[in-house]
């Protein structure tokens, strides 16, 4: 059964009178536990697609089914709660909350779900160990290197054991070696936890880590490649 | 090119530029508005004195009495006499109109060298003949005519000490000035007739050089004094001292709030542009060039913000001035300050504040930006770390300022100016300590097991100390001013209430109908009241204003029944005071004793028509009736020294407590005499109503400073929301609902309000302490019990929370409804 089902999705942007079609009747699906890389050049709409899948952005036409639930048929508060429970995010610029310590950043999704404080802290500590940041829980994000921040972001994205992990250019702001380690970590944990991973990248090198690659071009998935 | 880059940045980030401009403009506006209102009130008082003073340099008077006509006539007839103009004046009521008007009688032929405006009146053809021949001919200003609804040719009914009189509006002049609004100009003969001053003058104005002064001094009889107009004006302007002091205090506090607003706005503006500045350093802009660029931009912003602030300040000042004028009219005499008194010094202070505070606020971040290596210039963390490192130093400096303020105001000798310097230093010190208090309180709150987003809110405040600290300090200053002035007013209200309740021991008070214009009771009536069977005891009072050591002191010749004596709160040893009083010693009010350094046993000279009367001080009593001072003297001694048997007021005590019976009997007497019978309760009520009216302007100014602080918090939150847009977007992506985002921002804002109130409450109480123990004492000479009302403190806490809560509404709504998608993509 598909975990993510993108069906006939259309998204158009208007810049003044200029109409820009980002997607036109885009359709694809991602199976449960599958790791899929969404490969595309800059401006091809990769991030927009992730935002549509997560319900942050809304399509002009079409629908996104997440574990069978039509994301955009939900009202905004329900979409937010769906995201809270089902989705984990990893961003290019890490986007850790600067006013929370690393451990607290990781525990935040759990706290939002109402997990008690000590359980959340324990889970966060365990995840930080998993991503190689054991002992850094009490540090603030700004004191960590880029690679360390992205590891913390991965731990945060996985903390609440989401069904789907959305990673937006997770290595885009890292050097090649660190990026390689991060991708390895991300795909490894996702596979171990059975989490569906949708990985957006412009790098074919990164895309190789996926089970399957979808190439996004001119608003369409042009080809499906196996790495 | 560099400047263009900076200015374009501001144009692209209009909100940030607008917030900085708003901060500067508001700071300038509030200071200018309060100062304009303040100088408007002062000018109204001073102009009133100057209007009559004209070019006169000296004045001939008989202290506490009128000047016989003969003195003027005999001097004027002598050869070599300098220019002199006789004047008769008095305060009259106008039928059906509130307030009092000054009836001024002058001699048209003697006026020319003195008061050009008044002399110009006679220029119209035929005027002089009409003026001299028409009975009750009146000239009044256009503004006064409008206020009184009088047109040329109309009759105006006036009342002086219960006696009606009619004046005919001969001419309505256009020499409008604030002071002319309360003047009714008549011929000197008319004034004498209306005011019952046949053969008497109020004073004679003179234009004297040194030789002339010598000439006059050699020729004036005993009892007549030659005073400079400066000495005269002092008495008039002092009338408003209490009122003006309130405005000055509020003006100073507005200045402080304004400074913090500007500081707040500029710090924000700098912090938000750190990336641009870092990039400029990276491409080779030298530290010096960067520093100059930042300062140049600050000057441009300062000038623009100041211009907007001046315009807004004039507008706000108009409203405040009207309010001040209304209060002055209600409490003292009619002024209709319709036009603003555009005092240059008010503008200079406001401009100076706008430019200097902006530049000062820019200096520290500019210095940081210029000295840090390229690309790391003003990184968020570096800047916040620098701000946090500075917190202990600021707190230490603040503590020193606070202690110095208390020392200046309460310990070291000095006048009221020194008290205000101390007050200013105290508040500034407390404001500088605010970030440290935030940090300490944050530490306590952080230990509490708060849920994630609330923990985030608490921590945000500490971690954004460089921005939020100043906004909290601005709100703190406004709230502490509110507490300080509030506690002072409440303490004074309580003290006045207790004092009056003690003093007003009698059951009924009887006075002539026009008692407020100095009318006295018929001696026959006084005798009749004494004979009434329902009256168990009575006290008699006769008031006279005398100049003593440059003050207008109210001297009361009193025959006091025992209960009346018990109403005095004596501030010195009370034993044998009344025996001494009966033997001729006097009771001196606390303000007068303070200013003249009098203690029980000291001697004092009172001017009488027969020369000085030396009296001993029996005791000092608590008094809030007059800051100029009051003296009670035994009636027998008074009557002998002043040859005056008149009585202004009777205080009656009912036999067997039957007040109704006494009221009936006294009311029967009222059928034959124009008297006013007032129970003590009514006097107390009216007095407290006057008290409340006096402080109404203060209340409005408190509200204005709170509104300004509210806008300060709003600006701070708005700027912060702009900066933290991405953070909120991430939280939205993680699953925080719009409501939670709004709740987070509101929570942070409420926390700011709470912290501001926490610092403001003790600071405000300290301010009140200084206002009561130092400012009031040094300005007026009176002391009062210090009472802090818990309700007022609670109110301030709630106002702080309310201001912060309201300020959060828009930023919270805006952040919650912002599309997170574009921000998630940005670095």
Tell me the layout of helices and strands.
The complex is a heterodimer of chains A (227) and B (827).
Chain A: E1 2-15, E2 18-31, E3 35-40, H1 46-54, E4 61-66, E5 69-70, H2 76-86, E6 87-90, H3 102-112, H4 117-130, H5 146-158, E7 164-168, H6 176-193, E8 196-201, H7 204-207, E9 212-217, E10 220-225
Chain B: H1 2-12, H2 14-53, E1 58-61, E2 67-68, H3 69-77, E3 84-94, E4 101-106, H4 108-111, H5 116-120, H6 127-133, E5 137-141, H7 142-148, E6 155-160, E7 163-173, E8 183-187, H8 188-195, E9 200-201, E10 203-206, H9 210-219, E11 225-228, H10 229-238, H11 241-272, H12 274-282, H13 287-331, H14 344-371, H15 380-411, H16 416-447, H17 452-463, H18 465-503, E12 508-512, H19 523-531, E13 535-548, E14 551-559, H20 562-566, H21 577-582, E15 586-589, H22 590-596, E16 603-608, E17 611-621, E18 630-634, H23 635-642, E19 649-654, H24 659-670, E20 675-679, H25 680-694, H26 696-723, H27 725-734, H28 738-780, H29 790-817, H30 820-825
Parallel strand pairs in B: 4-8, 5-7, 14-18, 15-17
Antiparallel strand pairs in B: 1-10, 1-11, 2-9, 3-4, 3-6, 3-10, 5-8, 6-7, 12-19, 12-20, 13-14, 13-19, 15-18, 16-17
Helix pairs in contact in B: 1-2, 1-13, 2-10, 2-11, 2-13, 2-14, 2-26, 11-14, 11-16, 11-18, 11-26, 13-14, 13-26, 15-16, 16-17, 16-18, 16-28, 17-18, 17-28, 18-25, 18-26, 18-28, 18-29, 26-29, 28-29
Describe this structure in words.
- The complex is a heterodimer of chains A (about 230) and B (about 850).
- Chain A is built from seven helices and ten strands.
- Chain A has a six-stranded mixed β-sheet with strand order 6-7-8-3-9-10, sandwiched between helices. Chain A has a four-stranded antiparallel β-sheet with strand order 2-1-4-5, covered by helices on one side.
- In chain A, strand 4 and strand 5 form a beta hairpin.
- The longest helix of chain A is centred in the last third of the chain and has 18 residues.
- Chain A is globular and about 50 Å long.
- Chain A starts with a strand and ends with a strand.
- The model of chain A has no long low-confidence stretch (mean pLDDT about 85).
- Among the domains of chain B are: about 170 residues, no CATH class; about 160 residues, no CATH class; about 160 residues, no CATH class.
- Helices cover about 65% and strands about 15% of the residues of chain B.
- Chain B contains 30 helices and 20 strands.
- The chains are: A alpha/beta (about 230), B alpha+beta (about 850).
- At the A-B interface, helix 1, helix 2 and helix 3 of A face helix 17, helix 27 and helix 30 of B.
